[in-house]
Amino acid sequence: MTVYRQGLLKSPMAFLKVAFGLLITVSLAHPGLGFGWGFGGAPSYGLFPQFYQFSCPQADDIVMSVLDKAIAKEPRMAASLLRLHFHDCFVQGCDASVLLDDSATIASEKNALPNRNSIRGFEVIDEIKAKLEEACPQTVSCADILAMAARGSTVLSGGPSWELPLGRRDSKIASLSAANNNIPPPNSTLQNLIALFQRQGLDEVDLVALSGGHTIGVARCATFKQRLYNQNGNNLPDETLERSYYYGLKSVCPKSGGDNNISPLDFGSPVKFDNLYFKLILWGKGLLNSDQVLLTGNVGNTMELVKAFAEDGNLFFEQFAKSMIKMGNINPLTGFNGEVRKNCRLVN
């Protein structure tokens, strides 16, 4: 009667391999069922795309339905959610620490210099979490919600999709100091950008590809004003700025005041995920210093990468997807580490 004789599985060994594989999958998806396999009897855990296949199969559909409405209502939200994932992963790894509010024991990362009056989209994450808690209580982590929202926002803006490894758990702590020190400032030099990315295990290719996320979204005047009025401490504009673009930006950002006025990072297609961002950099129309130095910084291969992505949109999409997976794998909490928060703003 054995199933392998019916042509479904060729041998008893193949049957055992499948059964063994299923057992491991169940063990990983439900850490409470740890079988103690692995080195020294300790279970080993990693991220994998099918993590919620049995415990919450509708997770991605729920995420996408909330994103669909939120981005239709405010297209800029896609960029905000993509950025939230980035600002999370660069501090303690991808653990949803960025979502924690101030409390008696937590100094929120939301108050860090790169985040204050800047990161947004928390209400959308709250809505996704509430719907997931209804469907699958205490199953889907806030860290995974951030990763799924970043991918969904990219897709809904016309960008690439990717097979997303899941299974992150949520941190019980935040780090205001790491948020201040690890997130690249908008006026970064190229050396500084490369160093901050290397600290997270990301290379120059990842740096340029992930910077391409600036193909959507906007930035506040405060983040690029020095380029218009005092780039090198000499009260002169940044000479790498193309002239007509420079005059346009001056009309949006006066020398004094107007710090919260906004300008698109990619003024040609600010809500469409494409490779125009790289073309604009080649034309001297990168908005932030950290955008333009990818071309002018004279370190490593970033100039060649900007040119390659400007020339070939498919190449950019392919690399962006790979680099997003790599970024999403920075020091995740898995297995019995951390927790699955019921409310993304508070520890349980």
Automatic annotation (TrEMBL):
BP GO annotations: hydrogen peroxide catabolic process; response to oxidative stress
Enzyme Commission number(s) from the entry: 1.11.1.7
Catalytic activity: 2 a phenolic donor + H2O2 = 2 a phenolic radical donor + 2 H2O
Site (Transition state stabilizer): 83
Keyword Kinase part of the UniProt annotation: no
Active site: 87 (proton acceptor)
One annotated GO molecular function: heme binding
Main location: secreted
Residue positions binding heme b: 214
Binding site for substrate: 184
Domain of life: Eukaryota
Cofactor binding annotation: Binds 1 heme b (iron(II)-protoporphyrin IX) group per subunit.
Places the protein is found: Secreted
Record bears the keyword Transferase: no
Residue sites binding Ca(2+) 2 per the record: 215, 266, 274
GO annotation, cellular component aspect: extracellular region
Key words of the record: Calcium, Disulfide bond, Glycoprotein, Heme, Hydrogen peroxide, Iron, Metal-binding, Oxidoreductase, Peroxidase, Secreted
One Pfam entry name: peroxidase
Annotated binding of Ca(2+) 1, by residue: 88, 91, 93, 95, 97, 109
PROSITE patterns, alphabetized: PEROXIDASE_1, PEROXIDASE_2, PEROXIDASE_4
Paired cysteines (S-S): 56-136, 89-94, 142-344, 221-253
Cofactors named for this entry: heme b; Ca(2+)
PANTHER family with a match to the protein in the record: PEROXIDASE 72-RELATED (PTHR31388), PEROXIDASE 9 (PTHR31388:SF164)
Family listed: Belongs to the peroxidase family. Ascorbate peroxidase subfamily.
Function: Removal of H(2)O(2), oxidation of toxic reductants, biosynthesis and degradation of lignin, suberization, auxin catabolism, response to environmental stresses such as wounding, pathogen attack and oxidative stress. These functions might be dependent on each isozyme/isoform in each plant tissue.
UniProt-recorded name of the protein: Peroxidase
Source organism per UniProt: Hibiscus trionum
